[in-house]
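Input record (one chain):
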Amino acid sequence: MLCPRCEQGCILKAKVKAINVHFLICDECESFWFNVKDIGINNFYDYGSYMEEKNCCQYGMS
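The corresponding structure, as predicted from the sequence alone:
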């Protein structure tokens, strides 16, 4: 699926093991969503900001 925000990246499934969170993330702009039905241009989260908020290492995805 093409990212609706940047229109360049692909949406991939990911998990942050440290906080046991699953989500869908753009491999280009790092926008992410918790549910596939929520994927859209106006309701995304920024991966870096979210990880800072959770006091987590930014690159702990699997």
